[in-house]
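Fig. S4 source data, part A: sequence.
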Amino acid sequence: MIRHHERRRMLSGTAGLAMLAALGAGPAQAQAAASPPVQAPVPASAASARTAAQEPPAAAAVPQLAEGGAATAAVTVSGSAAGAAARQVCGSGASWLRLRFTRLDLRGDDSLTVTGSAGGAFRFTGDTWRDRTFTTRALRGDCVTVRPHFSDPSSAYAVDGYQAGTQSLEAAEVVVAGAGDICGSACADTAKLITGTIKPAAVFTAGDNAYESGKLSEYNGDYKKTWGAFFDKTYPTPGNHEYKTSGASGYFDYYGARAGARGKGYYSWDIGDWHFVALNSNISMSAGSEQEKWLRQDLAASTKPCTAAYLHHPLYNVGEHGAATNTRPLWKALYDYKADLMLAGHDHNYQRWAPQDPQGKADSNGIREILVGTGGRSFYALGSGGSANLQAKNSNTHGVLKLTLSSTGYRFDFVPIAGRTFTDSGTGTCHKAGSTTPDFALSAQPSSLDVAPGASATSTVQVAGQNGFSGTTRLTVSGQPSGVTATISPASVTVGSGGTANATLTVSAAAGTPAGTHPLTVTGTSGSLTRTATVQLSVGGGGGGTTVFSDDFETDRGWTVNPAGADTATGGRWERGDPEETQEEGVKQLGSTTSGVNDLVTGRLAGSGPGANDVDGGVTTVRSPAVTLPSGTSTLKLSYTFAHRDNSGPDDYLRVKVVGASSTTTVLERTGTAATDLDGAWKTLTADLSAFAGQSVRIVVEAADAGTASLVEAAIDDVQITSS
């Protein structure tokens, strides 16, 4: 039985169309074997649309908005236990249907297939969809056959409604628009584009929505007077300015449930045949972080052929802020699941990039980034340099990005405010528009290794399931030259539906191996599927020193915060990211790094001012991955900064320790000094690790504000261990 409030939500926004027929009884009449949907060209013209549902994002229910002219209907179709019969859902006169599942619980090897009477199918396997309410991609025809393949008595499914359209799927377009960096002197002008010119079904924001600090009073000021006019169709993300108010409380208070869970701010929603993912680039995005794991699970549970994501900080950027490389793990997850678009702000200008992989290489299977920080704030200059992948840019025109979306692709148009003339437009085809076949992606990180004769290096090989793929993948490596051995452990990994699995590639060069560069090919094989990844190997000459370990913190190399679970710091805990400068009687937290844009820092955000995100309440600890030192002499070198106000004391400190098999050595200790104001400055530590020769060691870094509350900031960068 459908609960009353669910039925009311399903029946809203039908655009005045009559309800379509509910359930076709009797045996299935459509072929249940999986087949890919027919591909269609990208529509060239926009069509305004209204939403068929406007509900806030929820953790276990993904909102589904429909194209203009689509209708919704309620049905009751379910099945459970072994031998559950196939059922049909039909809508008289429909060209396509999308089914809404309120339950899909698949146990063991059980599966379920949905097949359109005029083409298209999707096969569900694994536990990805358990405890999730979602709507499928559109399936062609006026009926959809639901065919369970159940042998486990606990397997079950339930469908409570559907969307349907009488126009062809090719013509079923829907419009989404938005921008970042909004209020802003020109936010009234950009709001007029939304309400008057474009009239989209949904609006995204790419962060820094209400200046200067994202306070609730600022949201209730100019933002509410302008962009607040379409609050009920807005799906926001926060920027760094929102976090100048502690915990971005003004942002979460203003948007409420529309902003996702408080403190997280990431969520997803569907519109037409597109899956949109709102991400929070102000919290941890590292591989294995809560957000990154959620993203992979969310992408694995989407049946949509097209995917767009949006956040504040762009990975690729030729503006003043530069590349936010700490977003790369999220890009990697999106790339693994064949996402199509990434929308961003932060730099107050417009940039359009060609599809790229997570390392910035042009890739027809990559993600197109469009940076649209043009919502109303004053402009930032663009760099004079460029990139071969940068296709369009502008730094003097406010406007919004209009996306006209179909089931197979998209058209983008930059729409300028009145009186300005810059425009940009183009089209793209979704990577999964013709594919529902289970597949997997294979990658290696790092993708290049430098090994001296007599030394070894490792890379992490990852298998990521796509389109419901689950199973065992056998891993091999080839291409190693004479004198080099390469092994992968374990040699086989098993991936659950929507999951990932890792193995370690170890490459060793024997003494006397000639110098040279060699591409190694890692191959993954699962049944008839074969995928490869390349690792570039450079062998050094002369039998000299080698780099045993290095980390510039531009990617996640496996450092662990609070490894013993005993940290007491209530704020300013270690994190990897792009730090924001703080000043109080001089610079305390440095906004610079010694290389790249990221370091390891005690609270990377400036927050609402100095002291807002510094170390507070005790000790914060971070530990490196294990590093095996060769025999002989090894040297640790790293950059660090330690700063404090004149309210500091000797119980405030920065310490670097090396922990071996049976002993621990403190190689750096800097403590606070009462009545002394110490500004931040990058310095270099060099330490001899010969006492740990042949051992597996970890580097442990501690920072503390352990006594009377004081202002304490610390960071490290460019850690390197070399041996000779």
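Fig. S4 source data, part B ends here. Residues 1-59 have pLDDT under 50 and may be disordered.
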